[in-house]
Amino acid sequence: MNPIQGGAPPRHALSPWVRWLSLRGYGMVTSTLFGATTPPLKMRARFERLARVSRQRLLRKFPKLVFEDHRAGELGIESVRAVESPKRVLLNLHGGGFFMGSPASYRARAMRLSFRLDAEVFVPGYRLAPEHPYPAALEDALAAFRHLRAIRPRSPIFVTGDSAGGGLALSLLVKLREVGLPMPAGAILLSPWADLTTSGNSVESNRGRDLWFSRRHLELWARYYVGQANASSPLLSPVFADLSGLPPLLLLAGEHELLLDDARRVHKAASRAGVDSRILVGEGMQHDWPLTLPWLDESKRAWHAMRVFVEER
Known about the structure:
- There is one protein chain.
- By secondary structure, the chain is of the alpha/beta class.
- The protein has a single domain (16-311), classed as Alpha/Beta hydrolase fold, catalytic domain (Rossmann fold).
- The protein has 11 helices and 8 strands.
- α6 (164-179) links the parallel β5 (157-162) and β6.
- α5 (136-151) packs across α6 (164-179).
- The longest helix is centred in the N-terminal third of the chain and has 18 residues, at 16-33.
């Protein structure tokens, strides 16, 4: 089933105390600011204040960055290039539980993806729940993919996403197969939320080890996006989908996060369906660790695995 063991070792390993403090600090911030019962619009505003960064601020530090604005109908899409001649295109679907996140709050992460994966990165501002429940985000992801195909017809396209964006990316692949569109070259799914029914074993086995999420988080937050739909629908919870015919997958999940089994089950189902699927489980890691804690040795290994994945294709 092609599990990935480790990756390129870091040149200078960090102190165990730095690792411990980083993980605990991450847990303290996320659990304090994004509690399960905090109103979704309040969390959205908090996330924007915390993560939003202006183009001007990034350009002052990295003057060679190139930003562009695109539109696919009513959908706004921001692109960033951190390398002069990118070898590939990434459609990056941001996380945020389907109810928070934006191109502006993912701008620094998109820049990092562009630099480390030698890519032009496109981040669509897909519609958010609870104002826009399923299938709004999936419709926008499909529109964004069609747009990239049209404007970058000669470039290899990869789909990437983290958390809710990782689940959305997998749903997009299933939808592309359904409508008969060409598949991307591959997909990278970081801590994907692929089961909105909250049925994974790790929801219980990692209770207390996940420093942010609880079952209550997942159950309440899922309702915002599911709306009146059936949460077990394959396009809402792609862990239940037929994954045959999908492009190569790279899944990453933290050993201690509640969503660990979402990634594991997707990996197993994809492998059984004949898909080239690989999984990297970050030892002792939390949700989205390569993006939120990029200085850790485990994050450096994850970024190396991502670079190898796209380079092979």
